[in-house]
Amino acid sequence: MTMAKGLTSAYAPMGAVAMRPEVADYFKDRVFNSGLTYNAHPISLAAAIANIQVIQEDHIVEHVAAMGPVLHRMLTDLVNSTLRWAKCARLAYSA
User: Fold this and answer.
1) DSSP letters spanning 34-77
2) What average pLDDT does the segment 56-83 reach?
3) What percent of the chain has pLDDT over 70?
4) What is the DSSP code (8-state) at residue 30?
5) How confident is the model at residue 17 (pLDDT cuts 50, 70, 90)?
6) How far is it between the farthest Cα atoms of the chain?
7) CB neighbour list of residue 94: distance below 8 Å, 6 or more residues apart
8) Is the pLDDT of residue 81 over 80?
9) At CA 71, angle to CA 70 and CA 72, rounded to 5?
10) What is the bridge-based pairing of β-strands 2-3 and 16-17?
């Protein structure tokens, strides 16, 4: 999986690749040509570490998981209201 801006909250350029341990093992003795344009810059690494600390300390992942059902409900309500509006619009234009 590739990731970038979220690592530093876009304060500094940073890209990374995460992979399963068995895939990473393959590259222990081989070069991994990822094509990332930003990696291993000291300022970007410091920003990424600080950002990850904030994510952990503020329990952002847990909060996002807890808000998932709320977002689902709100999106479902939005879809339903949009479908009602579309049905009314269709009836108005067909009259």
Assistant:
1) ---SS---HHHHHHHHHHHHHHHHTTHHHHHHHHHHHHHHHHHH
2) 94
3) 95
4) S
5) confident
6) 72
7) none
8) yes
9) 90
10) antiparallel
Mean pLDDT of all residues in 43-53: 92
**34: CB partners within 8 A, 6+ apart:** 2, 15, 17
CA 90 to each of CA 19, 23, 79: distance values in angstroms, whole numbers, following the listed order? 49, 53, 16
Q: Report whether 23 contacts 37 (CB < 8 A).
A: no
What is the predicted pLDDT for the residue at 51? 93
The residue whose two tokens read 């300390």 is 57
Q: Which residues touch 2 (CB under 8 Å, ≥6 apart)?
A: 15, 16, 17, 18, 34, 36
